[in-house]
Write a structure and sequence with these properties.
CATH architecture: 3-Layer(aba) Sandwich
Number of domains: 1
Catalytic activity: glyoxal + H2O = glycolate + H(+)
Radius of gyration: 16 Å
Shape: globular
Keywords: Lyase
Family: Belongs to the peptidase C56 family.
Function: Displays glyoxalase activity, catalyzing the conversion of glyoxal to glycolate.
CATH class: Alpha Beta
Order of helices and strands: EHEEEHEEHHHEHEHEEEH
Organism: Halomonas campaniensis
Largest sheet: 7 strands, mixed
CATH topology: Rossmann fold
């Protein structure tokens, strides 16, 4: 496996971490294409813990984002601070509410959000070296703060999130669940995934297209 992709996680579970299906489908497609990968996550405490059966916050419980992300990566994961863009050909950020709660404060701050400094630092090299960056589900909301204004992205057709992207100086493009939006100039690829998906097969189609396009852009 000559090509290598960094995958940045935000915990484990749709309501307080990384979306499990989106992460698994991303890793599956990378492996099917013969592309190596390494997972990374910030070594910080989660914003909160959510009971995924009831979708209620579990009061008094705290978990670590890196340790929770290790569940998804089967233990093969490194702290986000160790991500060196020079060692990878691209980076992908799956969705899940952990993106809006742990990697940023979008869930509470909306278009006034701030992005985790460690994430900004980690992605500087990818942007400066024009290496492909893939984001799915809610994670494209990070782009105006994380990369720059004026970059075309999609979260599907959610009016609140697309409005926040526009308010931060981003460019939102409506998109179906099984498709992608590509900003060739800035080397950014996005897909709605579970912002729209009602079945895992729907999410898979768009995610596979995203990974395939990232692979093409690495050549």
């Amino acid at each position: 496996m000559t090509k290598q992709v960094a995958v940045i996680l935000a915990g484990c579970g749709v309501y307080d971490g990384s979306e499990i299906y989106e992460t698994t489908l991303t890793l599956l497609r990378l492996d099917q294409l013969g592309i190596g990968y390494r997972c990374f996550a910030p070594d910080i405490e989660q914003h909160h813990v959510v009971n995924h059966l009831t979708q209620e916050v579990v009061e008094g419980e705290q978990r670590n984002v890196l340790l929770e992300s290790a569940r998804l990566a089967r233990g093969e994961i490194s702290p986000l601070e160790e991500l060196d863009a020079d060692k990878f050909d691209a980076v992908i950020v799956p969705g899940g509410f952990g993106v809006a709660k742990n990697l940023s404060d979008f869930a509470s701050a909306g278009d006034s959000m701030q992005v985790l400094d460690a994430l900004k630092v980690a992605l500087v090299g990818f942007r400066e070296e024009a290496k492909p960056i893939g984001l799915m589900c809610i994670s494209p909301v990070l782009v105006p703060r994380l990369l720059d204004e004026g970059i075309a992205v999609t979260v599907g057709n959610d009016p609140a999130v697309s409005g926040a992207i526009s308010a931060m100086g981003g460019l939102h493009r409506s998109c179906g669940v099984e498709d992608i939006v590509v900003d060739l100039e800035h080397r950014v690829v996005t897909t709605p995934a579970y912002m729209l998906a009602t079945r895992i097969s729907e999410a898979a189609t768009g995610i596979f297209k995203l990974v395939d396009r990232i692979a093409e852009m690495m050549d």
